[in-house]
Design a protein that fits this description.
single chain, 2 helices, mainly alpha, elongated
């Protein structure tokens, strides 16, 4: 008579333990979803900022911008022409 009572009692205890474990795991998953959402939002913000910084870099490194900044600093363009006086053969005949 005691054997069925022990089996039923142990099954009830196992069910309670598994239920509590399931609740705990569900709680952990729910909070990690919120954290994951925040991380994804922050990653999107960083990507947007990187795109803006890349655009600024391309603008600052453009040759027209560099030329205008050089003129503001007092640099002048050299107007002497560089011309080769004659053709140099590619290979000499032997």
């Amino acid at each position: 008579m005691k054997k069925p009572v022990l089996i039923i009692g142990s099954l009830i205890i196992i069910i309670l333990i598994l239920s509590v474990t399931r609740i705990f795991i569900s709680n952990q998953v729910a909070t990690s979803g919120v954290v994951l959402g925040k991380i994804q939002e922050e990653a999107a913000n960083v990507k947007t900022e990187n795109a803006l910084l890349a655009e600024k870099l391309y603008t600052k490194s453009a040759l027209t911008n560099i030329d205008s900044e050089a003129e503001k600093l007092g640099f002048v363009t050299q107007n002497s022409d560089f011309v080769l006086s004659g053709q140099v053969p590619v290979a000499y005949k032997q």
